[in-house]
């Protein structure tokens, strides 16, 4: 028996499939949180925070695309994605005890960890 990653039906290993899902989940969480923050206003709607949410959603979508296409550059994109996700999580956590922000931060941290494994 080998320790090689298990390959899915489409040729992707389970670690990559997990990362694709984490990127998709984080993308969705960031877009939902962006809408929430715009509705909340105040600190939630500060430009730097909104920009991080948009950056995170965009890089998660890009990382997902690179992995789905089997791009040889997916590891480099995943490395950047992990960094952006960490920054976004920190920004969300800085908003205090807010369930929506906590949900987004958790999704960002899961995605960052998964992307670090792919990088």
TrEMBL record:
Which Pfam families does this one have?
A: Csp (PF03860)
Q: Which PANTHER family match?
A: CYTOPLASMIC PROTEIN, CYTOPLASMIC PROTEIN-RELATED
The identity of this protein, by name, is: Ferredoxin
Organism of derivation:
Deinococcus humi
What lineage does the source organism belong to? Bacteria, Thermotogati, Deinococcota, Deinococci, Deinococcales
């Amino acid at each position: 028996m080998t320790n090689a990653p298990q390959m899915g039906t489409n040729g992707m290993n389970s670690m990559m499939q997990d990362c694709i899902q984490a990127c998709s989940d984080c993308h969705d969480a960031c877009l939902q949180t962006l809408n929430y923050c715009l509705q909340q206003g105040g600190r939630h709607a500060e430009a730097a925070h909104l920009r991080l949410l948009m950056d995170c959603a965009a890089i998660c979508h890009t990382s997902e695309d690179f992995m789905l296409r089997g791009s040889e550059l997916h590891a480099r994109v995943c490395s950047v994605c992990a960094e952006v996700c960490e920054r976004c999580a920190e920004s969300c956590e800085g908003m205090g005890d807010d369930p929506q922000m906590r949900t987004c931060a958790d999704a960002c941290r899961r995605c960052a960890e998964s992307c670090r494994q792919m990088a």
